[in-house]
Design goal:
The protein is built from ten helices and 15 strands. The protein has helices spanning 5-20, 26-35, 47-50, 82-87, 89-106, 123-133, 164-167, 170-174, 213-224, 271-277, and strands at residues 59-61, 73-78, 108-113, 142-144, 179-182, 191-197, 200-207, 230-235, 284-289, 297-303, 309-315, 328-333, 339-346, 351-353, 360-363. Strand 6 (191-197) and strand 7 form a beta hairpin. The radius of gyration is 19 Å and the shape is globular.
Length: 367
């Protein structure tokens, strides 16, 4: 294979850890996935197929399809790592390790996790996720949002109880320079983070699964207090894979896994409600979410109340082999502070997906 030796050897080591150290036998894996409500839609492939010499038609081997630009700022995005935490912990470890190794070279300024950190909301999964993400401590700031699988018994989202605040330290997160505040003291379910990128101030608003009305009101107040910051909204369920926002009042388009279809307690807000109550009113330049199955991608550009374009993006790879093949998103903000290159990369395979929905360039409305 035409893959760099160091990355490939490290990948093999962590993959072996992922597949062998978890104690997950093949028949147990099959039984657990069949019992899950988010059953992968693609046919599972074994390790030999994933690591075959010939990449899929939608992938290209390194070197990357286009080089990163010196002086640019990169945001790394981790969608739905639930199956890694459940059965392949080495893959999440590999993702975090790769980000830490590449942070200085690529100018990675922040990491955003899109939720479903775990699958069953168990201590073992949270322990694995916490250990993997700790590789970023002191290297790159990172922020998390809980997904539906991070709540309730067996990740069923029937309560808002989560292991997030047990296994990730609020105090350590609050000590990071970019940390701005939280909806509830001592809880990481809803936080915001401020930083500089491309010569401008930014704010990342991280909201829980199916944000409650009181959380949306808090987020609205936070954005009102930061009118000059370019906003990124990160929440688990917002845009669907049909390039439309989730909208439980829409009787025409599919609403599979809309937050309103769950029994999560309290008020719930889906993508359209978040757009109407929050996003369109403030200076958000983009939204990021995971959660959705099918092809796991989506994109929508909408004009807010101030005439500015908001780029809304979905990315999710949990349907691929090994719970995602290690794919993550890399958002490169060019030195001009407005051009954003979106890339999809796997540290495991050292491959980029180059389909139009996986690699593209957008112009942020920053004026």
């Amino acid at each position: 294979m035409r893959i760099s030796g160091n990355a490939w050897l490290a990948g093999l080591g962590l993959l072996a850890s992922a597949c062998n150290d978890s104690g997950w036998e093949a028949d147990e894996e099959s039984a657990q996935l069949e019992a899950a409500d988010d059953i992968p839609t693609s046919e599972p492939r074994d390790r030999a197929a994933v690591l075959a010499d010939e990449p899929p038609a939608s992938a290209t081997l390194s070197p990357q399809s286009s080089p990163f630009t010196p002086g640019s700022t990169v945001f790394a995005v981790l969608p739905d790592t639930q199956y890694y935490a459940l059965g392949y912990p080495g893959l999440l470890e590999m993702q975090a390790w790769w980000i830490a190794q590449k942070a200085e070279e690529l100018g990675i300024a922040h990491v955003f996790h899109l939720g479903d950190i775990t699958h069953k909301n168990t201590d073992l999964e949270w322990e694995r996720a916490s250990a993997a993400m700790s590789l970023l401590d002191g290297v790159v700031p990172y922020a998390l949002v809980p997904g539906n699988h991070d709540y309730g018994p067996s990740g069923a989202a029937t309560t808002r109880d989560t292991g997030l605040n047990t296994w990730f330290s609020f105090a350590d997160t609050a000590a990071v320079a970019s940390f701005g505040g939280a909806f509830e003291a001592g809880k990481l379910d809803n936080t915001y983070h401020v930083f500089e990128a491309g010569g401008r101030p930014w704010i990342a608003l991280m909201l829980e699964w199916a944000p409650r009305d009181e959380v949306v009101a808090w987020a609205d107040a936070v954005m009102t207090e930061h009118p000059d910051h370019l906003g990124i909204l990160v929440t688990h369920a917002y845009l669907n894979n049909n390039d439309l926002r989730y909208d439980h009042t829409d009787d025409i388009h599919p609403q599979n896994h809309n937050p309103h279809g769950y029994t999560t307690p309290g008020s719930l807000n889906d993508g359209e409600e978040l757009w109407q109550k929050l996003v369109r009113r403030h200076r958000f330049v983009m939204t990021l979410n995971g959660h959705v199955l099918g092809d796991g991608t989506g994109y929508l550009a909408s004009v807010d109340d101030h005439g500015r374009v908001v780029h809304q993006m979905l990315a999710n790879y949990q349907m691929r082999a090994l719970g995602g093949e290690g794919y993550l998103r890399l958002l490169e903000l060019m030195p001009d502070g407005r051009t954003l290159h979106v890339r999809t990369y796997s540290p495991l395979l050292d491959r980029y997906l180059v389909d139009a929905d996986q690699q593209f360039t957008i112009e942020l409305d920053v004026d």
